[in-house]
Each structure stands twice: as C-alpha cells, then as structure tokens.
Amino acid sequence: MATETSAAKLISRDRITDAAATLFSATDDSGQIPEMFVRNRADELEVAGEDEAFELPVVDMAKLLDPELSASETAKLGSACRDWGFFHVRAVVSLTSHGVDEEVMRHMKGSTAEFFRLPLETKNAIAFGGDDTFNGFGHHFNRGPSVGNKLDWAECVLLAAQPGRASLEITDLTRRVLGFMAADLGVSEEALVGAFFSISGDVKGQSVGIHHYPHCRQPEKVLGISPHTDWPGLTVLLHAVDTPGLQVRRGRRWLPVRPLPGALVVNVGDILHVLTNGEYMSAEHRVVPDAERCRITVAISSRETKGGHGGKHDYSKGNFVALADGARFLDSLKK
Ligand SMILES: O=C(O)CCC(=O)C(=O)O
Ligand SMILES: [Fe+2]
C-alpha cells in the first residue's frame, strides 16, 4: 500500500559513525540532539494516550489448532487482518510440536542483545557498503523533500538470508498462519501458502531486520524507524528486549502497541494486501524510542522471491499478470 508519506520518501542506508554511537550510549540528558536526527513533526498525527483502552487483537495458535475452537479463532484472525493488519499471536510454547520453541527464542534474544553490545568497530565489520545496501549493519537515512535528510535513532542488521534455527521456527509459524488466513478468505490453502513457500516447504524468500533502538532522552524529537508499510507478505516481530515503542497507524492516529509476554507481533505486508485484493490491510507503522530503556526487536518477513530487505518490486509472475490485466488475483485462487 503506497501511503502519502511513504510515497514521497526515499530511504537509503548508512554506516553508524562514532558520533552517532556516542549519542546512542549517552547516559545523561544534557546533550543537544543533532539536527540530523531531529524530525519534523509539523503534520504529526495524534498519538493515543497510555490510558486509552485499546489493544491489538490476540490470536492464539493453540485455539487455531483445536478442532472445537478453530473456526471462531480463524474468524478472529481474519477480522484482525481486515481491521488492523496487525495482531499478537500467542505461539511461544516449550518443546511441543506446534508452537515456536521457547529455548530457541531465548537464545535468539540473548545473542541479539549481545551483538549490539559489541564495540562499534566490530559491528562495522559488516557495515552497509559497496553495492549491497540491503545486507549489513547500519541505520536508515531518510531522504526526500518531505523528510529532509534525517537519520533514524537506531542501529540495525538487515539480512536477506535465513540466519538460523530461530528464523526456521518463525517460518514455520508463518506457514501455519497463512494456512488459517486462506481458510478465513475462502481461498485454496495451497495457493496462498504457495505464494511464499515452495512445494518442498521452503520459504521462497526471507528478510530479517534486527533492530536496536537506544534510549533517547528527548524521544519526541526523533524516530527509531520512520512511518512505513512492510513490503513483503507477512512479518513476524519478536521482542528481544520488550520495551514498547512500536506504533500502528489507524486513521489519523498512532496507536502504541504494548509487547505481550510470550506472544509475537504479526503484520500484513504490501504483497499480502495485494494478494487479498486489499481485504487484508498493510498498516503503516513506526517506532518511537523510549526515554529510559533500549528496545531490541527481530522482524522476520516472508517474501515471494529472493532479494534484499525492501528489495526488488517484482511480484510473483501470476499475480503480476493478473494485476496488469486488472484482474482480481484473489478470484483466481477461490476454490
Ligand atoms: O522494531 C519494530 O518494532 C518494528 C520494525 C519494523 O517495522 C520493520 O522491521 O519493518
Ligand atoms: Fe515494518
């Protein structure tokens, strides 16, 4: 979904400088935030208050898998995708067959936090550079007339590959969630899952974004990640450090998402929005750093092709042809 804000925006990726690293580790609040980080919030949408009673829908994997509860939980999943494009999924269980393995997740959280604690020069050994700005370590640099030239208050590692066990667990979860989405949409499971997974069960493409949002004493001045929609199909977000900060746009407001212990945040990306003829929302979201604590997340997205994070805009061929014909792609999947 091209939104007004994201359409006018160009994003590239930069190395983290010593000066930025010093700012990110500052413990006092006396320092000025450099202009390069100060965002124009003139057209700021309203941010919903902490006291407002709203919560993202929570979908429970155990209920989806329970024959007696599956239909109602599938309907809940469907309405979350239509109304929000975002939901929590309770899927972390210890060593049972259907959830995401707790031990694997714990390991991923630990190693992620450990990476960001490394000295800058060590992290910069894999810095963005050369031709490949979709794989590596650094941060987003937002260009374009509507944004100015502004850096995100964050550091991240972006990878187009599958880095290990944890992402396989997430991939498995993605395949199962897509299966229930197909049931909700009344389309063939094979076709919807098959848009992202090969017959042998491997995901066709995957992007991983590992994000560290250092605390910022003046959080209202900066952004950890600029408003955007996710390009790929489905993104699963794991909190390695569960400091809040993610905000989802609904209408003219930003709604803060509170991390839910033991749950993952899932959101619909642009490709799934298109594949469902716009039935499922690809919602705009952003991150505002916390004043006191850092936030660390791992975002794993399934794509329909190989390629980098935010990479080539090539739909799978069938869908592209359907779009070019003005056909409703979803109709071709209907049972
Ligand atoms: O870190 C977060 O909460 C959001 C990350 C995100 O939006 C992304 O990787 O696309
Ligand atoms: Fe995102």
Instruction: Please give the share of residues in helix.
Output: 25-40%
β-sheet strand percentage: 15-25%
Structure class: alpha+beta
How many beta strands in the DSSP annotation? 17
- Are there runs of 5+ residues with pLDDT below 50, and where? 1-8, 308-329
| Main sheet makeup | 10 strands, mixed
Taking all residues together, what is the mean pLDDT? 84
The CATH topology annotation reads as Jelly Rolls
Instruction: Quickly name the level 1 CATH class.
Output: Mainly Beta
Count of DSSP H/I helices:
11
Form type: globular
The N- and C-terminal alpha carbons lie at a distance of 26 Å
Query: How many domain units?
Result: 1
What string gives the helices and strands in order?
HEHEEHHEEEHHEEEHHEEEEEEHEEHH
CATH architecture: Sandwich
The CATH superfamily is known as: B-lactam Antibiotic, Isopenicillin N Synthase, Chain
Instruction: List all distinct small molecules, including ions and cofactors, that are bound in this structure.
Output: 2-oxoglutaric acid, fe (ii) ion
State the main characteristics.
alpha+beta; binds fe (ii) ion; disordered N terminus; 335 residues; 17 strands; binds 2-oxoglutaric acid; 5-stranded mixed beta sheet
Provide the fold topology.
Layout: H1 4-7, E1 10-14, H2 18-24, E2 46-47, E3 58-60, H3 61-65, H4 70-83, E4 86-90, E5 92-93, E6 100-101, H5 102-117, H6 120-123, E7 136-143, E8 150-151, E9 155-159, H7 165-185, H8 189-194, E10 205-213, E11 225-228, E12 234-241, E13 246-250, E14 253-256, E15 263-268, H9 270-275, E16 285-287, E17 295-303, H10 317-324, H11 329-333
Parallel strand pairs: 2-14, 3-4, 5-6
Antiparallel strand pairs: 1-7, 4-15, 7-8, 7-9, 9-10, 10-17, 11-16, 12-15, 12-17, 13-14, 13-16
Helix pairs in contact: 4-7
Bound molecules: 2-oxoglutaric acid and fe (ii) ion (FE2).
